[in-house]
């Protein structure tokens, strides 16, 4: 009796296993790794919401190649070292056919090394450091890169802010920050500007008084902070505390509702460049903003959400054109991506596996992000 019962259990378990296997085969697994918690949770939360919105819409319309897409998401907790581990797990255990992620360049670079090694295509929504896609032929992105963003910011500082003497405060532990500072500096100097002080900090720092006091002594026209919102907001606060009322500005890393929450009135009149504005009158942007708000409790999508959405559209477009879920075939199709229309404009992947898109400049006004101008590539 006991034996029979046990063999029955074995048969039951085996058939359940068979069912779940066949279910797996009827869906296409795409891996997503993101900073869903931790220091830059705003990045991962936003990109994830955009990505999921796109996948759900695609599934509602029948999926791709006759199959539904299953998004398998993993959280790296905004920690360095985690992305490589979870991406390896997504590839070897979950057998994902492609990867979406990340926002922060340093973490994308960690994951890209693993993706390249296993030959699984990876598409970053928002990492702008050039080195990310240089890691190998399996690594792509749907956003512009920092030589363009740095140049756009240098031109903005010279022409619009009329700044001649600028101090830079770089996060030396972030590939993104170091890169953006370099590209900004090059163009700003070429345009006749002067860098009065090159100051630095490390991710996670909370006290910037020493650097800001030294900056104040040089009497600059503006301060450039190429970094992420957590530190940028504190830097703005402490600069105001020290009585500095000059403009502070940064790049896309400033974008998060937390900039306003942490920074309060200290971030009024600060500027940053980013990938998109929800205020754009373009019909594809309007449609995206509406769909996003409906799905996510009235929340207005930011740049990370828009890029997360676009990354999913571009990947699914590639799977469709590949006519296959083989990673090598998806890779080939990704490399020939052309004019895929999304929330951040049209994505065309170039020979370096990057995209070329316009940037927008945002100002913080009356506690809100407000569109200033677009910078064409
Ligand atoms: N571009 C930043 C990086 O490479 C990440 C980022 C993108 C942050 C878009 C905010 C908005 O690290």
Provide a descriptive summary of the structure in words.
The N and C termini lie far apart (76 Å). α12 (303-322) crosses α13. The longest helix is centred in the first third of the chain and has 24 residues, at 2-25. Helix content is 46%, strand content 19%. Residues 8-23 have low confidence and may be disordered. 50% of the residues are buried. The chain has helices at residues 2-25, 41-60, 82-92, 105-118, 131-134, 146-160, 175-190, 209-217, 229-241, 257-263, 283-295, 303-322, 327-335; strands at 27-34, 68-75, 98-100, 122-124, 139-141, 165-171, 194-201, 222-224, 248-250, 271-274, 340-342, 345-347, 359-365, 368-375. It contains 13 helices and 14 strands. The protein folds into two domains: 2-144 and 282-357, Response regulator (Rossmann fold), CATH 3.40.50; 147-274, Rossmann fold. The structure holds phenylalanine (PHE). The site of phenylalanine has 15 residues, from α12.
- What is the CATH architecture term of the largest domain? 3-Layer(aba) Sandwich
- The secondary structure category is alpha/beta
- The fraction of residues assigned to DSSP E strands is 15-25%
CATH superfamily of the largest domain: Response regulator
The whole-number mean of residue pLDDT values reads: 94
- Could you say which small molecules are bound to this protein? phenylalanine
CATH class identity of the largest domain: Alpha Beta
How big is the Rg? Answer: 22 Å
- N/C terminus separation: 76 Å
Shape: globular
Q: Largest sheet, described in full?
A: 7 strands, mixed
Task: Tell me the helix content.
Answer: 40-55%
């Amino acid at each position: 009796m006991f034996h029979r019962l046990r063999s029955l259990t074995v048969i039951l378990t085996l058939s359940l296993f068979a069912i779940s296997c066949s279910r797996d085969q009827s869906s296409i697994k795409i891996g997503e790794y993101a900073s869903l918690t931790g220091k830059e949770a705003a990045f991962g939360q936003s990109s994830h919401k955009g990505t999921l919105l796109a996948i759900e819409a695609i599934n509602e319309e029948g999926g791709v190649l006759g199959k539904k897409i299953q998004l398998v998401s993993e959280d790296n907790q905004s920690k360095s070292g985690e992305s490589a581990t979870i991406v390896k797990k997504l590839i070897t255990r979950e057998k994902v056919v492609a990867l979406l992620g990340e926002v922060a360049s340093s973490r994308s670079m960690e994951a890209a090394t693993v993706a390249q090694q296993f030959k699984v295509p990876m598409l970053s929504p928002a990492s702008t450091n050039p080195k990310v896609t240089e890691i190998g032929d399996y690594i792509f992105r749907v956003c512009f890169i920092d030589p363009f963003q740095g140049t756009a910011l240098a031109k903005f500082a010279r022409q619009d802010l009329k700044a001649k003497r600028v101090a830079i405060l770089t996060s030396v532990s972030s590939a993104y920050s170091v890169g953006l500072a370099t590209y900004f500096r090059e163009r700003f100097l070429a345009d006749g500007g002067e860098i009065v002080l090159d100051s630095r900090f490390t991710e996670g720092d909370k006290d910037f008084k020493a650097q800001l006091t030294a900056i104040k002594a040089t009497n600059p026209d503006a301060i450039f902070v190429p970094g992420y919102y957590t530190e940028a907001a504190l830097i703005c606060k402490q600069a105001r505390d020290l009585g500095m009322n000059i403009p502070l500005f940064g790049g896309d890393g400033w974008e998060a509702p937390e900039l306003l929450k942490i920074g309060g009135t200290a971030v009024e009149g600060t500027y940053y460049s980013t990938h998109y504005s929800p205020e754009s009158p373009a019909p594809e942007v309007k449609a995206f903003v509406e769909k996003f708000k409906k799905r996510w409790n009235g929340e207005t999508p930011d740049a990370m959400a828009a890029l997360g959405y676009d990354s999913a559209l571009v990947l699914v477009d590639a799977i469709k054109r590949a006519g296959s879920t083989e990673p090598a075939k998806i890779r080939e199709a990704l490399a020939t991506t052309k004019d895929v229309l999304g929330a951040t404009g049209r994505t065309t992947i170039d020979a370096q596996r990057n995209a070329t898109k316009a940037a927008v400049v945002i100002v913080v006004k009356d506690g809100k992000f407000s569109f200033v101008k677009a910078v064409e590539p």
